[in-house]
Structure formats: structure tokens, C-alpha cells
Design a protein that fits this description.
- 2 copies of one chain form a homodimer.
- The first copy, chain A, is an alpha/beta fold.
- Helix content of chain A is 25%, strand content 28%.
- In chain A, the strands form 10 sheets. In chain A, strands 29, 30, 31, 32, 33, 34, 35, 36, 37 and 38 form a 10-stranded mixed β-sheet that branches. In chain A, strands 16-13-17-21-20-18 form a 6-stranded mixed β-sheet, sandwiched between helices. A 5-stranded mixed barrel of chain A has the order 22-25-24-26-28.
- In chain A, helix 1 (11-22) runs parallel beside helix 6 (294-312), helix 3 packs parallel to helix 6 and helix 12 crosses helix 13.
- The longest helix of chain A is centred in the middle third of the chain and has 19 residues, at 294-312.
- Chain A is globular and about 110 Å long.
- The N and C termini of chain A lie far apart (71 Å).
- At the A-B interface, strand 11, helix 2, strand 15, helix 3 and helix 6 of A face strand 11, helix 2, strand 15, helix 3 and helix 6 of B.
């Protein structure tokens, strides 16, 4: 029988058992030059070896005097000093000659002539004089144990005469990627093969946290080989990570190997993604089996390995920045699993709003585009509309307050606009979520974004968006900013091998169509075209198979998963398929009229009106930009 | 005439003028291998070169089936599949054979015997199947321009077939330390010489922010040499930093040189410390003259150079973490200067309380010991009691809520205890501020700390601390935790060259004493001893000269700045001076009785009671630890 999951445990229990075991584990200490110590952690307290300054020094640029000679000086009765006899110039840090006991700062000194100074305020003894050891005194503790050495600590250490410090070595990690289906990034991909990149992500995370990692070659699903690699790694490394091979798949030997070599502490944690993680010990060292799904591997790396890397160096792992965010829709989640959900974030009406991304799919890309990871607790069946939940912010996305969110239909020019905003180093980021025109308008209505992107045809009047806007937003005042006018048409394979020439060809038995999802403007258009030609949708093979973006549909045709799809010309160009033009349509950015004054929107409009940017959009293929940036208003005036 | 300050400007104006000039400046771009790109910033958008997956893949470990064959399956009417014919095992990521269109996860499959599977729930087409390009689609933008590449971005880039990316080069910085008084850290220090460490701090800061820096040799105060070094640097570097030479001292040529070579944008900013900074441009490149005082150099580096280093790489500089903190005392500050004040932070009664450190003095060490930098605005004459002001948190001190603050008299065993807490990786940090016994009790009363450290003799009763506690805290219930009993006595030079044997020797004309500050327990003791011997303080030469810690007083004697001082034995040992025992005294940690239950206090007491720690304390010299850790209560019962 195949081995299914072991007893899964809650995240809290897994953390307790795992970190409980390795809490006191540290790397060896080593002595290094103090100048190389910034960012490392002291393994013992460091005490000053000398005092500084080691002489009475001036704390100011000014003149050194005897304080008793300044008594009674005032605006009315200034006191004069003979240069070089009764007073001498000193700069900050200069030794104060032993017959003087105070320094008057240069701003308060009048140079009368070449031979006298004048002052009009008395000073007390030791005024502006740094005493011996004022900065540091020999024998004092400069930094304690387990202290991460900062730039200014370095200054204090050098000042105190320290040349070497004892620090914890960087934790050594060995990463062992396993799996017959994996190949290196530089290989040509055969069907069924996947590029191995988990090891590289994990390696760079470990580096960021202060560890060092080496990766073995990709090990095939061979029990003996995996076992030998683990045994070898445990001898020479602080942490061993086995990639993939932790779930219930038929080639997953890791669990069995770890049970034999040491002790499996945890197999299976109630989190999603990331459930099938293995936390084990071999020779009192941690060995972790990470699932192969990239998000699962990544999440477990952040949950379990990050803290270890820090504690091995004697550090507490810093808290990841978190915010509370509200959802404006129901978000179902499986009870009994703590879910980590990628979300976009934006601030609307002084609230941080989270919009969940689709689960599972588009793993890496959607993480790259996400602003944070929402945590839905194990004991919750999800969130209701207007519930709040904590969101871990992704690095460099801390400035979510300035995010401008656009939800709606996908258009290739949007990426270009997003990039232009980034190039300008403006203080905001354009967040784009591709969900289809109708879903975009609904998101705008729910208050999940500032902008919706739509190209919704009204078959009765032939207008774009207006009819739908009035229906959805009633007499609310809405603004439409024209993004582009663009060509829609059929994607077909290069050279048109199946000889598709009109919409009626889609009825042929040898033709498989691929459609767009419900609510997508392009699907509305397709239904309109079918209706006009009096074709029943049910007769189109593939009508129910859906892709979510133009480019995904075009790629599907290019790959031969389908013979035809409807979409914009620019995607045909990107996906290298042929294109049969069908019609021209308008794509608008839609927002509440009151938001036209938002400086981010104003900047966006100014970009759209720039000739050079319009030219770049046209270059994508099938676009007209005469009306790009034009604003129209609908609704209650 | 000597050149005094130019027109000083506000910090805001300085930032505007300086960053306004260099806002668009970037380093060159270079193509690097994608695996080395994490942490660097894309100079252009990156588009996917391939789709992934490039085949229909299983999203689960399970069995692949035809979805139509699962219709109607239920608990009562399970559906059976013949192994390898009607269903096949697939692992996550495996290609789904082309005659199947759904995957049922392994947990939902019953293996009846060697030849059949059973399921009890139907699935729809494409269930658990990842479509082609689901993760990434060729031609899509993966990351935009000016995006800092993160670990998971790396995964997405590799998956999308990216091998090289264009990133901004690390900004190249040249640091030119100048000054006749400066020597390298490995030199023997002569009188008037200072160790040059500013360049090393600044170099490590720049490294942390993503730049790379090289430092020239220390350049003497020679105009020609400094000028040549600046000219040479500007040719090959993005930023040039001249250290020292920016104030009004007589050897400060930097200003003059920069006026000749280019344009001085700002000389003098209304901040403290850090006023005499020079911000200039030479050949359209930034050249910054930093003041020599380490805190000034450091602060200006953080204010002006940090942001440049980021923007040169195409990045916004992240906000430094800040909190609002309350002061429990009046904090005067000069109007017209934005002051940056080192503070300790602790949380008391759900408020973050800031305690300012002494200005100017003990520069580096007090920064190392500080938790943050309080900003007092230019238009304020300081803060009144219970005012709040923003505090920039120092790296790794983010967990200020857990700080346990101790203010009071200095004792060497406290460093040791602080270090022991650090070693235990407990979740709190023991913050120690040495200000003298009486000042500690007043701080405790004001609510600035949880613990005061005191050894205040009551000359009338001979008791320690009790009389003062009753007077200051009235009938409030207070707890005293005995830290140590310790020897007090006179510090004298090794070998007692001046033949000091009793307190009356201090009356001798050839003997200079050095005293402790008012409110210090040791000063109280000295006054008591003088009184007992019927000696008038005014007759002691040096009675008014003050040091702030035992060890500073001992060092002063060791260096010959004074012939005698009163203090604890442990400091005599550390400072290598001789010691004439005079009396034994008790040093207590004092707190409000209600705080005895605080787990941090409980842990502290448990440490004090440990035999091994008591032994370490005794080793410091002059300590008895029989009563260490004992608790007594005074006040209203």
C-alpha cells in the first residue's frame, strides 16, 4: 500500500516541537577581523581594550582659554585675549594644551586684529572639553553576546581598540533537489520535464538571512542515492534540505529514509499550501523535506528554516511586517487548515483592502505580483465580506498605501504602463489583476480597486462599457479613460494549417476552439459574433474550455491545445500565431469620477497622453491610440 | 579672516536642493546571470521567454481519469476504475496522459486490490490539471523596471526561461578620510592622535544599502593632496565622500576646493549633530563633505548618502522604522536646529517611554547602547514632560516593547548580567543607563524605567537605600533586590607613588582628587567620609571635578589626570590601579513591588541566584554575593 499522510498537526504544534528541539543549537564561533564583522553576530561580549580619547580634546572648533580669565565677560564688557599666549586656536578633536581648561566656540569669538580675540560671555571650567575616556573607557563592555554588529558598532569597536571579534559562523546549508522530472535551467525541456528552480530560490533566501548554501546536482528518485546524499550532508552542514519527495507521491522516499537515519519530528502540517513538509533530525541536526510545489517549498522555508538560520547565528528572527486588511467579498477556506493566500493590497477610504488571487494556479508569477500573504486561521471556514485578517507584507511592497489597483480585463499595454510608472520612480505602484471585464467592474463596485479595465460590448447599441456601467453603477458619476482601441480576431496556427477562414469553420468536427472565461469582454464579443451568425454555442467544440487572458489563449493555439481562439492582435504577435481580424473595440479604464483628482490618476492620464508612450503601445500590434487618454463622464451630472 | 559658516538651511530645504539635483541620476546598467540578481534592481522590464508548464500537468498526487467516467460517484455508489487502463497514478507535476482530463487526489482514492481503484465523488473536466502556461505565459512581463529582485522573483524568472537580467551596477563610492590628527586603527596612538574609523562605518553602511565603497589612505590637511584625490575620485566613482574638513576649523580646505572644482549646493544644515555638512556637485556628480565628529558623519550619511545610494540603483530608500515616544522629563533643545537625540526606549503602562542620553559625550558607545534617535523639530524649544516625539529605531532594536530598563548607579556586574540575558536568547533586552543612584530613583519615580540601581547610604542610620526610598516613594510598596555587596575604597596609582594612606592625605597640596557627580552614591559616601573626618570639601583640590562612572574615575587616576578617587574595587582591577579599601556597601535593584511578577524580573532574579553567575561576579573583584538575589519589601504592606 502507498503511504498516505502521517498525523498532520497544527502549525503552532509543529513550530513548538521543531524549534523546541533545535532552540539552543548554534554554529561554531570563529574569530574574524572587526571590519568584516558588520552583519555578523558576536558569540561573546566584547570589552574595550583602550580608552578614547586618551587626552583632553576640544569638543569644538574654537579657542582654548583659561576659564577663570573669562569671568564677567558680557556684551558691554567684552574680554580680550592675546593670541597664542592667552588663547590658541583648536579644532574639534585637537588636544587642549595643558595650561588651558576651556574652549570657546569659534562662532562666539571676534577676531579683533591679528593679535587679539574678544569674547562677550564667560565659560566654566572644562567647557567644551572632552575628558579622557569620555567616548569609551577601557574595560567597559562595548557589545554583549548574541548581538548583531551594526555599522556604528563597528565604529565603537575600532575606537575601543578591538581588532578581532568572535562571531558565529554562517550556518552551512546543503540543498538536495530530487526528482526524475527535474532538469537544470539551461536544458532543453522535454514533455513532462520541469526546470528545477526551488533550490535557487531557497539558496538566495538563506543567503539573505545570513546563511550560506550549496546545492547538490539534481538527484533522481533513487532511494540509495538520496540516502547517501543526506548522510553525507549531515556530516558537514548545519542544516540539510531535501527538495520534493515529501508528499505522498509514488517516488517519495525521503520520509522513509529519514525515519531510518534519524527521527521524523513532524510529517504534515495543517497549512495550505505546504502541507506535506517533513521536519526531522539526524545526528541532532535538522533535516527538512520540502514539498516540490514552489509556493509550498517557499512557505515552509520561510516558516521553518528562516528561524533556524537566525537562531543558529544567535539571533531572534525579525518579525515579518504585517498589516490587517479587509476583504470586500466572501473568501472560502478549508476549516482545519491555516491558509496562506496571495493578495493584492490597496488603500481605499482609509482602509487597507485585500483582493485574493486565484489559488494554486500561476504560482510564481502571482506571487511576484502579490503585495502580501493573507493568513486565514485554521479554525475559520474562510472570511465573510468586510472581515479582516492579517497579511504578511512581501519585501519591497511596504508602501502599499500608495498602490493604485487596477482589476479587470487583460491588455498588453497595461504592463507597459506599469513599467513606465516604475521607471519614473513615482511614489506609487500600479497593481494589475487580470480577471475579465465584468469581474473588474464588480471589483470596482465592491471597493476593491480604484480602476477597472473593461471592453464590454452592448450588442443592442454597439457601444462599449456605457450600457454596463449604467446598469451596474446606476446614476453614480463614473469616468471612463480610454486606454486603447484595438483589433479583436481569431488566433490560428502559423500558416493556417486547418484552413480556418470564418466563424462557421468553428463548427467543423476537426476544429477545437478555446474560449475565455465567463464575464470576459472577449467572451461577450464571441457570443455576440455567434449570435449574429446564428450559431449555437453548444455546437462549438471547446466552447466550455476556458483561458483567462488573451495571451494564454494565443499560446494554447500556438501549442496545438486548440485550433482557434478569439483575442486581441497584440497577443497573437507575442505568442507567434496568425491572426484573422474580426472587429475593432475600445478598452477603457473606469473609475469613480471623484477620483479623477487623485494625483496618481492624473499622472496615469498624463502618461497615456504622451506621444512616445502611445508609439510604444502601437508597436505591440493592433492598437490605435488617437483616443488614448481621453476622458468621458457618465451618470448623474 | 577664517571662514565661518555659510548660510545654514533647514533640513527640508537641504534635502530638496540636494536630491532635486540628483533625483534622476542612476548608475550604468549591466547584464548579469539571473542567479546573481537577487537583491539587485532591474534596469528594464523582463518578459517571459517561455511558458510553464509546457504540458498539461497534474496539480496533485493522485490518479488521472476521464472526468466523464466519474459522473454520479457517491458514498453509496462508488465508481471503480481498472488500474493502468481507466486510471493511472500521477504525482504532482507529472504530465497527464492525453486520454485523461482530470486528476483525483490520492486521499480521495481507495485502492481496492491490485487491479482497481474506487472513488466516491465525481469531478469535472480539467479538475486538478494545470494547463499549459498556467504558471507563466511567454511574452508576459515578469518584473517591471526598477524592481528589486527577491528570492521568489528569481524562481519566476528561471521558470520563465530567463538567464540574464539587466540590473543597475552597485553605486561606486570613494571615501577620502582627511586630517593630520588621524591614524589607522593598527597604529600606536600618540597624544593628540585619533583612530580613523568613520570611513569604516560609512563603508559598511554603504555596503548594507547596496553600494560598494573604497577608501583612500588618510590624507593629511594638504589642500593640493585633498584636491587631487577628489578630482581623481569624481572621474571613476558615482559618489565621493570627504571625511572631516567640513567645519570651520583652520585646516578645513574641503569647502574651498569644492567651490573651485564644482558647485557647493549646501554648506551647513540646521541639524544637531551634523550641522557643518557640505553637499556639492563636481561634473554633475555628488560630492559630500562629512564632519569629523562620528555621530555627525553617521547622521549625515544616513540622511543624505543613504537615499542617493538607493536612487542610484533605481530604488526608493525604505523608511526607517519610527515610533512615537513620550518623555517623562523636560528636554531642552535649541530652537532653529532639528535635533537628533539618542534615547533609550521602554514600554511602561502601555506607553513607549524615551529617556534621552547625555548629549555630545560618549559618542559611539552611547549610540551602541541607544534604542533609537529622537527627532526634535527645528521649530521647538525642546519637549515638556509628557510630550511625544518621533523616534527612529536603530536596527535590531525593533523589539523595544520587551526592553527592561535599568537606570541608576553603575556597577560592573550589570554588564555581566546583561550579557547573560543575551546569551539565553530570552525575548528581552536589559537596557542599562548609568547616571548615579539618586538620578536612578528619580527616573523610576518618573516612570522612565522598571528598575533603579542604587547604593545610597543614610549616614544617620547606616542603612542603604531604605531611608531614601521612604523619602522619595512615601508609603508606596517597593521591592529591593540585592545585586551585590561590594568594597568601596580609594583608587591610587600603581605602587602608590604619592604615598596616599588615609583620607586626610587628600588635603595635601600635591594631591589632586577626582570626584563623582552629584547624586552618585559614591559621592554621598565620600561626603560622609569627609564629614566623619571633619574635613571641609572646599579644601580638597578637585572636589568639583566630576566623573560619571567608577571606571572613568579609576582610569583618570591611572592616566594621571588625578591622584585619587573613590570607587568600587572591581573598577580598580579593570583600570589597573591600586586600591585602598575603605568600606563595604550594598547595591540594590529597586522596583515597584507589583512588578516582581513580571516574567523578565523573575528571570533576572533567577539569574542572580545562580551559583555560576555569582562566581563570575565575584571574579570581577571586591564583590560578595551571599545576599545576591534576595528580595526585601518596604512601604505600605
Amino acid at each position: 500500500m502507498r503511504k498516505i499522510y502521517l498525523d498532520k498537526v497544527s502549525l503552532d504544534e509543529a513550530k513548538q516541537k521543531f524549534f523546541g528541539k533545535f532552540h539552543n543549537l548554534k554554529t561554531e564561533a570563529e574569530e574574524i577581523e572587526v571590519e568584516k564583522a558588520v552583519g555578523k553576530v558576536s558569540s561573546e561580549a566584547v570589552y574595550a581594550r583602550r580608552s578614547a580619547p586618551n587626552f583632553y580634546a576640544s569638543a569644538m572648533d574654537g579657542i582654548a582659554v583659561k576659564s577663570e580669565n573669562t569671568a564677567g565677560a558680557s556684551e558691554r564688557n567684552p574680554v580680550q585675549f592675546k593670541k597664542d599666549k592667552e588663547a590658541v586656536f583648536v579644532d574639534t578633536g585637537d588636544p587642549v594644551p595643558s595650561d588651558f581648561d576651556a574652549v570657546i566656540k569659534i562662532e562666539n569669538v571676534v577676531e579683533n586684529d591679528d593679535s587679539t580675540f574678544e569674547i562677550n560671555k564667560g565659560v566654566s571650567p572644562w567647557h567644551n572639553i572632552r575628558s579622557i575616556g569620555e567616548s569609551v573607557v577601557k574595560g567597559e563592555m562595548i557589545i554583549p553576546s548574541n548581538h548583531k554588529i551594526r555599522d556604528f558598532d563597528l565604529g565603537a569597536l575600532i575606537e575601543a581598540g578591538i581588532k578581532k571579534v568572535a562571531v558565529y559562523k554562517k550556518p552551512a546549508v546543503k540543498i538536495i533537489p530530487t526528482g526524475n522530472e527535474l532538469v537544470n535551467a539551461d536544458s532543453e525541456l522535454k514533455k513532462g520535464q520541469l526546470v528545477e528552480f526551488n533550490s535557487k530560490m531557497i539558496k538566495s533566501s538563506i543567503f539573505k538571512w545570513g546563511g550560506r548554501a550549496k546545492t547538490t546536482d539534481i538527484i533522481p528518485d533513487d532511494k540509495k542515492m538520496i540516502q547517501n546524499n543526506i548522510k553525507e550532508s549531515v556530516k558537514n552542514n548545519d542544516i540539510t534540505i531535501v527538495l520534493a519527495g515529501s508528499s505522498a507521491g509514488k517516488e517519495d522516499y525521503t520520509l522513509n529514509i529519514l525515519e531510518n537515519l534519524g527521527r521524523v519530528i513532524i510529517h504534515g502540517v495543517n497549512i495550505m499550501p505546504g502541507k506535506p513538509v517533513i521536519l526531522a533530525e539526524v545526528n541532532n541536526k535538522p533535516v527538512i523535506g520540502l514539498p516540490g510545489y514552489p509556493l509550498s517549498a517557499l512557505l515552509n522555508n520561510y516558516i521553518f528554516i528562516r528561524k533556524l538560520i537566525y537562531s543558529l547565528q544567535g539571533l531572534k528572527s525579525p518579525e515579518l511586517p504585517e498589516v490587517e486588511a479587509k476583504v470586500k467579498r466572501k473568501v472560502p477556506s478549508e476549516i482545519g487548515l491555516e491558509e496562506f493566500l496571495r493578495v493584492s493590497l490597496t488603500e481605499i477610504n482609509n482602509e487597507i483592502i485585500a483582493v485574493p488571487k486565484k489559488r494554486g494556479s500561476a504560482a510564481m508569477k502571482s506571487l511576484v505580483k502579490a503585495d502580501g500573504i493573507m493568513r486565514i486561521a485554521e479554525n475559520k471556514e474562510g472570511l465573510s465580506k468586510n472581515n479582516k485578517a492579517p497579511v504578511i507584507l512581501l519585501e519591497d511592497k511596504e508602501n502599499i498605501k500608495n498602490n493604485l489597483s487596477l482589476i479587470g480585463s487583460h491588455d498588453l499595454s497595461l504592463d507597459l504602463i506599469q513599467d513606465e510608472i516604475q521607471k519614473s520612480i513615482k511614489d506609487f505602484y500600479l497593481n494589475i489583476q487580470s480577471v475579465g471585464s465584468m469581474a473588474g467592474l464588480m471589483a470596482l463596485k465592491r471597493g476593491e480597486c480604484q480602476l477597472a479595465g473593461a471592453h464590454l460590448l452592448d450588442p443592442e447599441t454597439g457601444n462599449y462599457n456605457l450600457t454596463h456601467l449604467k446598469r451596474i453603477f446606476k446614476d453614480k458619476k463614473m469616468a471612463l479613460i480610454t486606454l486603447v482601441e484595438r483589433q479583436q480576431g481569431f488566433y490560428i496556427k502559423k500558416g493556417n494549417p486547418k484552413n480556418i477562414n470564418s466563424i462557421s469553420d468553428l463548427l467543423r468536427k476537426d476544429i477545437a476552439f478555446i474560449n475565455r472565461q465567463r464575464g470576459a469582454g472577449t467572451r461577450v464579443l464571441f457570443d455576440y459574433l455567434l449570435n449574429k451568425s446564428e450559431i449555437e454555442p453548444a455546437k462549438i467544440s471547446g466552447y466550455d474550455q476556458e483561458e483567462f487572458t488573451h495571451i494564454a489563449a494565443a499560446i494554447a493555439v500556438g501549442r496545438g491545445s486548440a485550433d482557434a481562439a478569439l483575442g486581441i492582435k497584440a497577443a497573437a504577435k507575442a505568442a507567434e500565431v496568425d491572426f484573422i481580424p474580426v472587429t475593432e473595440e475600445r478598452y477603457d479604464l473606469i473609475l469613480f469620477e471623484e477620483n479623477l483628482q487623485d494625483p496618481r490618476i492624473e499622472y496615469l492620464i498624463s502618461l497615456l497622453k504622451k506621444k512616445e508612450i502611445q508609439k510604444k503601445i502601437e508597436k505591440l500590434g493592433g492598437y490605435k491610440t488617437e483616443k488614448t487618454g481621453e476622458i468621458s463622464i457618465v451618470g448623474n451630472k
